[in-house]
């Protein structure tokens, strides 16, 4: 009899769960009061009651495990999203300076060109490089040249606003898009950047390493048929800054076309 009842309890627990065990236990207690059962049946029923309590506790523990597992999955999903965002940022960033890289910056240049044309808002861009950079590499070594690049990137980051789009364009060359900024504002931004770079104190061992930058500025206007032409105009202004002595900011509007 006991073995049969145990098999019934086991089957009820596996197939139907805790509620089925409770129903079976109630039925057994009723039969114990109305029928002739073996003398040890009451002790058996008490043991079944204890078993039911352990089963119930086990279910509670299992539910907590399921809840914790679900929370773990949610955290893993958030971590996965964070990792994906970080990978996207790394794919768009210059490894040395942590500015945007050239590819991503050019995508943003196209976007800002279209946005300005659509809404008629002012936007300017700067392109600049480090003067006599090859001389710095030759005289002090490439590690010092890399430090100079990073210092200039830090100055650019300090001078720029959150909305500005700043990049290492390649080698010792940098670029920045300044939304909502006309040529005058961009020129003043460039001059602030140039003067702060010139004032930097940097030494390689006991040798001072002076360096400066030259900057070209171009505000977008209706004469530029596309974003590429806008960039060319800024590059021409940079060439003017180089040709007229370096360590200066030149405007596209003052450059011969």
UniProtKB/TrEMBL annotation:
In the UniProt record, the signal sequence range is none
Recorded hits in PROSITE patterns, A to Z, give: GGDEF (PS50887)
- Would you say which domain of life the source belongs to? Bacteria
What is this enzyme's catalytic activity, as reactions? 2 GTP = 3',3'-c-di-GMP + 2 diphosphate
GO biological process per UniProt: cell adhesion involved in single-species biofilm formation; negative regulation of bacterial-type flagellum-dependent cell motility
Which GO terms of the molecular function aspect are on file?
A: diguanylate cyclase activity
Q: Please give the GO cellular component terms listed in this UniProt entry.
A: plasma membrane
Domain (GGDEF): residue spans on this chain: 121-254
Q: Give a single Pfam family match.
A: GGDEF
The Enzyme Commission number assigned here is 2.7.7.65
Q: Which PANTHER family match?
A: DIGUANYLATE CYCLASE DGCM-RELATED, REGULATORY COMPONENTS OF SENSORY TRANSDUCTION SYSTEM
* Name of the protein described by the UniProt record: diguanylate cyclase
Q: Which organism is it from?
A: Zoogloea dura
């Amino acid at each position: 009899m006991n073995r049969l009842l145990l098999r019934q309890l086991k089957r009820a627990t596996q197939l139907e769960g805790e509620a089925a065990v409770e129903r079976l236990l109630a039925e057994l207690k009723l039969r114990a009061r109305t029928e002739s059962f073996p003398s040890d049946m009451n002790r058996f029923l008490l043991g079944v009651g204890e078993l039911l309590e352990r089963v119930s506790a086990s279910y509670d523990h299992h539910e907590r495990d399921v809840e914790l597992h679900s929370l773990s999955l949610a955290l893993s999903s958030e971590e996965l999203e964070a990792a994906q965002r970080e990978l996207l940022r790394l794919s768009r960033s210059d490894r040395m300076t942590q500015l945007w890289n050239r590819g991503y910056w050019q995508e943003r240049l196209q976007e800002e060109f279209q946005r300005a044309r659509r809404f008629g808002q002012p936007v300017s861009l700067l392109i600049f490089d480090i003067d006599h950079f090859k001389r710095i590499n030759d005289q002090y070594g490439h590690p010092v040249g890399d430090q100079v690049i990073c210092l200039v990137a830090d100055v650019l980051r300090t001078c720029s606003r959150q909305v500005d789009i700043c990049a290492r364009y390649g080698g010792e060359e940098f670029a920045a898009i300044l939304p909502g900024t006309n040529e005058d504002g961009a020129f003043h931004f460039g001059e602030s950047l140039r003067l702060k770079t010139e004032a930097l104190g940097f030494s390689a061992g006991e040798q001072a390493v002076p360096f400066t930058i030259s900057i070209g500025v171009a505000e977008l206007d209706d004469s530029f048929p596309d974003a590429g032409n806008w960039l060319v105009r800024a590059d021409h202004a940079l060439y003017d800054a180089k040709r007229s002595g370096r360590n200066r900011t030149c405007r596209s509007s003052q450059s011969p076309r």
